[in-house]
Amino acid sequence: MSGHLTRFWPVVTSAVQGPHPPEPSEVNSMHGVVVEWLGSRIASGELTGLLDLDSIARRFHISRSLVRECLRTLAAKGMVQARRRTGTWVTNPEKWALLDEQVIRWRAAGPERFVQMHESLELRQRLEPLAARLMAERRTEAQLERLRWATEQIRKAITTGSAQGMIEADTAYHRELYLASGNSMLGRLAGTVHACLRVPDFRNYRQFSIDTVTRHQRLTDLIAAQDADGAERAAERLMALTTSLFLAAYERVTGQARPLHQTA
Hints:
- The chain is 67% helix and 3% strand.
- It contains 14 helices and two strands, in the order H-H-H-H-H-E-E-H-H-H-H-H-H-H-H-H.
- The chain has helices at 3-6, 9-13, 30-44, 53-60, 64-76, 101-107, 113-138, 141-160, 163-179, 184-188, 190-198, 200-204, 210-224, 228-254, and strands at residues 80-83, 87-90.
- The chain is mostly helical.
- The chain has a two-stranded antiparallel sheet.
């Protein structure tokens, strides 16, 4: 990264809570840096209403045309909207592309991060058993080998007490379920699952034990045996446990039974 871009790096990463900065590919250009800066601040509620293009251009020493390009990127994510004669405005969160990987990461540093975590678990509770069933029916040997590899990495991470290793292995495991489902729509959700599993707070609200290895190994074995019914049930149990652990930890820390949407 050039010195010109590095100068803005602290501004960008300061908006991201915990050890989950943007991917290098997302900020390897001035366009990426500006999109990151704007997106994270819109998600946190720091930027609202009408956006001042001149102020943004001055802050980063860039042209208005580049600012407009950045805003078009955010418009594609539903976060801003250009209105004729009045300028570009920040939109309400219900219009955002909530399954977009960057939007997920930006929201993870915002006021509704726990709501997002809970919603992602609710979604996965329904979709992941289906993905497991389809993988059991359709998987290739190469896909099965990747799942087995991820299972072994989970075992190693827990044995060595590596939280980061567990995150990487668990993410690889659950992404593979979606990618190997043979359903292109489910496959598109692999990135969403990846982003949700890697947000900082989700790391803190998960509990890993040897039972985690057993449950993942059981699911892997059922998929290997092409037992679709068994794989679906195993995935249901795994997701139910994950959700209950999150809710128990959330209640322990906050005193609330479950995250609630903020209301105006």
